[in-house]
User: What shape does this take?
Amino acid sequence: MSAETRQGESAADPCHVAIIMDGNGRWAKMRNLPRQEGHRRGLEALRRTVRHAAELGIEVLTLYSFSTENWRRPQAEVSFLLGLLRRFVEKDLAELAEAGLRVRIIGGREDLAPDLRRLVEHAEQSTAGNSGMTLVVAFNYGSRDEIVRATRAIATEVAAGRLDPAAIDEAVLHGHLDTADLPDPELVIRTSGETRISNFLLWQAAYAEFVFSPVLWPDFDKADLVAAISEYRRRERRFGGVEPVTVRKAGAA
Ligand code: IPE
Ligand code: IPE
Ligand code: MG
Assistant: This one.
């Protein structure tokens, strides 16, 4: 976001913004359209938001696009959402790479088809050297699953004698999460009026500010993103202390 500070706002801008993109189904239902149409329009909102976030100078943008719980949806909807990810990685990648973005996918990969997994790995590897905004897509992501996978990896190192249990601290756990190389989000936005976290970044969002927007995700626009950031700037962040901390809190534990 630009350097100027509006009245009543602190100077700190969020470095990492994470969004729970919710409300595609309700957007479609209100228009008597199939849920799939809501997801299609949701993908357009995602593309727009990536552009707007980069314009606003956000360094890391994480988008929750499919949760470990979303497998409970009807098979046809699950297949459609998997198809959208595939098309996004296939078709948008060149454009994102051209714009200098780094692409990261977080979430369990074992459940993905081998070719989709290869596409995802290619997207990450081919953009790893870029210096623009980091776009993190949370797909087949669940925070509890991520913490379980991290715990299993740590236990494996302990069992192999490579790690002393006494050396396990917050940094070690953080280092085994899918987000090991990313700063924690300072701002989490959820659209559609729901006010829950739905298994998203439970560890990483320990001190995030939450902004809940009534806007349904397909309607989410730049003004809504700017409004959420303005709301963030008005918050007093104390991190357990007494005085507000205004410096940018980029970085993990
Ligand atoms: C968000 O929209 C997209 C995903 C969770 C994949 P929803 O599909 O959850 O939309 P609502 O909540 O039914 O309106
Ligand atoms: C959260 O939305 C997951 C994503 C946005 C990908 P859901 O619509 O799945 O969440 P619940 O079921 O309402 O908690
Ligand atoms: Mg929903």
Summary: Residues 1-8, 249-253 have pLDDT under 50 and may be disordered.
